[in-house]
Amino acid sequence: KKEKRGEKMNNRLLRSFAAAAQARFASTLILAEHNNVVLNPATLSAVMAASKIGGDIDMLVGGASCGAVAEQAAKLPGIRKVFCADSAVFGKPVAEDIEKLILQIHDAHKYSHILAPASASAKATLPRVAAKLDVNQLSDVLSIEAEDTFVRPIYAGNALATVKSADAVKVLTIRPTAFEKVEEGGGSGVVEAVSCEGAGLSTWKSEELSKSDRPDLASAGTVVAGGRGMKSGENFKMIYDLADKLGAAVGASRAAVDAGYIGNDLQIGQTGKVVAPQLYVAVGISGAIQHLSGMKDSKTIVAINKDPDAPIFQVADVGLVDDLFTAVPAMTAAVGK
Length: 337
What we know:
24% strand; alpha/beta; single chain; 31% helix; 9 helices
């Protein structure tokens, strides 16, 4: 028993020494989000987050015919090197393939931090990376207090936890809306081509994407969202009409999605997209905790609901207690006058 206790203590000391060594030589690998043409704006927020850690910052761009993306990444401020894995394997990457690529780059350079925006793909990939490295993953980080100390939401955003990690490698996703985007240009990073075979464990089959001329929901400056109070999918035309007048993206609560009023690609909340526009208009949304966690960082929140006790009014900057079927058409008619 004494030998086992001594072995456990030695392991703890070794991990502590390893963590201390990593802290002195911090370095971060960012997994870039892109569409093989341009970087996703969330990646610019990830660079800002990495700058809070300090040390060298490298970026990994995996894709097909993605050379232009790598060049764009190299010009971001603070980026030292961009690893570009340009292969058909990564044209429509699956988590197993990207995991293998990340680990290959990490094995060669031994980063102290591996970081990505909290996207659907990163949420599928980074837990695998953390498991292979035998470390914990920190999800949805809102603030970086030190190289080993991070703030993240718990209880659907109702509380914030400050977490100190003793792991030699910190694997984390950051919430893009919590960090400012770095300005593009001014960087002088170098691009290095790398190659990696796929894991061969799964294959991309197909995808169905909804097409819209409206702004992208995740990055829009104005969002108009409807909830269960809309009562039907047909009534969402009011939301679209108001959004068109405001030049806004359209979103919805989970209740509206579950009721079949609108597609789940427009869902906002803990299990959907997280947004932080300049203006958020919530129409017929009660304000459940899981929805608030996805939009409460919006700069100005306007709520329209006939229930004066609806929780949405607790976070709203402007509240209108009224029948949405009267208020929304009146607002739409008034915009632009």
